[in-house]
Amino acid sequence: MEGMQAYGAGKAGGAFDPVTFFQQPQTVLRIVSWLFSIVIFGCIANEGYINRPNEVEEYCIFNRNQNACNYGVFMGSMAFLCCMAFLALDVYFPQISSVKDRKKAVLADVGLSAFWSLMWFVGFCLLANQWQVTQHEDNPLREGGDAARAAITFSFFSIFTWAGQSFLGFQRYKLGADSALFSQEYTDPSQDAAGAPYTSFGGEDVESPVGGAGGGQAHSEGAFDGTGGYQRQDY
Fold this sequence. Notes:
By secondary structure, the chain is mainly alpha-helical. It is built from 7 helices and 2 strands, in the order ααββααααα. The chain crosses the membrane at residues 31-51, 71-93, 105-131.
């Protein structure tokens, strides 16, 4: 019983094990998504704005579309913060004793991860399209080309890392929902056995003898006189 998990968490109140924590597939995906968000944000913020030789004002490297750069920077920064929040929740998760709170946390993980996967798909399509239609005269020196391609590439990879987190979260939800151990009516068998009154195996209450010694004598004779179904053995 103790090996089972409530919505993917170990026994409530258990000690945090960093080795086991960082070996979990969901933790690995969160860290990878966190790194991808840093790369995307850094590439666009540092090298995503250029200007023509005869201009002073800088424009977005993606077809001079400010919305494309703004979207990439916003998504990268927000995904970074979201990954940090999820990692903190995973660390705290085993300490949550309420099954309802655990269920809400897992459902939030599934929903938000799926949402981020969709948003990165939109971001990948936007950045890839705008990079494809970028005019050569807007960037004759091809400055920031590697950074732009890196942002597009890691946006594509982020689709699958966030989708993987959503899938693992859904598996964790199914594990908790299908387990009778974590239903609201569950009671520990050891505690239930200790608190329940003793009953006979036949399910019938055993009446105490009435009448003191005489009652005990009558009961004893009835057990061996052959009328109660007991057959006396002759040797």
